[in-house]
Amino acid sequence: MSRLAKPNGDITMRGMGRLRQAKRKIQRIAFNSLSLQTFVDEEEQNSLEKHMGFPGQWQEHRRFQLAFVKEHGVIPTSRFLEFGSGPLTLGLPLIDYLDKNKYVGVDIRPNVTDIAHNQVAKHGLAWKNPRLIVSDDFAADELADKTFDFVFSFSMLFHLKDQLVERLFAVIAERLTPTGCYWGNINNVDMPESTWLKFPFVGRSPEFYGAIAEQHGMTMKSLGSLEDNGFRLKDKLERHNVLLEFRLR
After folding, report:
1. β pairing state of 80-83 and 148-153
2. Alpha-carbon span 48 to 38, nearest angstrom
């Protein structure tokens, strides 16, 4: 008659010990993987913020810009053109919101536009077919005769020299539909001219932009400061930037 063998205590303890070691190894691997992913995510975030120009403010700038355009009439069927689209601070969630083929972003920096393309792919939005253009002339040739319901730039106008502001408004006048509008924020604080990266940083009055818009058949209206429109970073100077709206006469 066979008898059930009693388990060997030493073997059982050794097995449990190996199980604990394996569990700890798995935990270390998981922790290291998580730490690596956290590092990668932080590096990506730092890169995006660097190319946006406002370190530590990415989420609020994205939230504010998306809320602003939606509150002011942008709907999924809108044709939307963004100048200074950069790493898609606004562009990425807006591409997700808009219908296919409705978003065009223009930036002068090829390396930042590469980042933008990577963001579109990473977030599975390539099927929306956004068009991202590198241009030093506001895509005047690339866009041919295309028109848009909305044109937008954020924190770009005060990085343009006077002659480029004039060129921008000439292009915008050709891009707007009869009922379309252009929004841009300005730094209206009187300050010495400085630079950000390779771009000038210029404070100008709303009247400066209004006069140029008038030359190109557009009217201007002030929408108030960023803070007036819901910008939440109360300790940042850009909350005083003024938002301007331009429409064809």
Report:
1. parallel
2. 15
Q: Yes or no: say if 68 and 32 are a contact pair by the CB < 8 Å rule.
A: no
Summarised one tens digit per residue, pLDDT across range 45-92 is: 666 655 555 567 778 999 999 999 999 999 999 999 999 999 999 999
Q: What is the per-residue pLDDT across 23-38, written as a single tens digit (0 to 9) for each? A: 676 666 555 544 444 4
**54-248 CATH fold:** Rossmann fold (3.40.50)
Neighbours of 214 (CB within 10 A): 14
β-bridge mates for residue 151, sequence order: 81, 182
- Provide CB contacts within 8 A for 223, sequence distance 6+: 183, 229, 242, 243, 244, 245
Nearest to 172 by CA among 156, 152, 142: 152
pTM for the full predicted model: 0.79
